Amino acid sequence: MTTLRPVSGLVVACLLLAACAAPGGVGGGPGGAGASSDDTTSGVASTGRRDPTPDVAPRDDLVSTRALQWVRAESVGDDRVRVFFTASNPECAGQSVQVEETDEAVTIALREGTLPEAPGVCAAVAVQASMVVRTRAPLGERAIRQPGS
User: H or E element: which one contains 21?
Assistant: First the structure.
């Protein structure tokens, strides 16, 4: 006989978070609540804001940074791009950005690290966030890329 064990609330919360953050999850991906007809296969949209995620300001004082992948980008002006990503607890972590531009592409590299004023103990929390990044020259027809792509 098989014995079933109850699933803890933490496991259920993690599964719900993963479902909401996954492409095609709540409000994302083709056919999701946030989809629009101007989506492209590169993940770049050229119209106004579709998600209510908060814009965060880049920081230059982070400790112990690591690479952070963004999941989507959209043009929000001639020289601005908004990138969307999953961030760690905003009381403990911040993000920085590095932009490299060529005639063909704009490469946007995000990093995440510990805030200098972070408390000694931080809850493991994931939040959807975005950041507006300025380019030196108008975006035009240039591709928006992550490092290594």
Answer: helix 9-21
Beta-strand runs (E) in the chain: 44-45, 63-68, 70-77, 80-88, 93-101, 105-114, 126-134, 143-145
Distance from C-alpha of 125 to C-alpha of 66, rounded to nearest angstrom: 17
Decide: 110 and 69 in contact? Cβ < 8 Å.
Answer: yes
By CB atoms closer than 10 A (0-12, 13-18, 19+), residue 15 is exposed
b/e sequence 92-127, b meaning 16+ C-beta within 10 Å: bbbbbbeeeeeeeebbbbbbbbbbeebeeeeeeeeb
Cα 27 from Cα 99, distance rounded (Å): 28
Q: Taking the CB of residue 138, how many other CB atoms lie within 10 A of it?
A: 12
The strand pair at 80-88 and 70-77 is best described as antiparallel
Residue 15 backbone phi and psi in degrees, to 5? -65, -40
> Which residues are paired to 126 by β-bridges?
88
**pLDDT tens-digit series, residues 31-63:** 333 333 333 323 444 445 455 677 999 999 999
pTM of the model: 0.66
DSSP classification of residue 89:
-
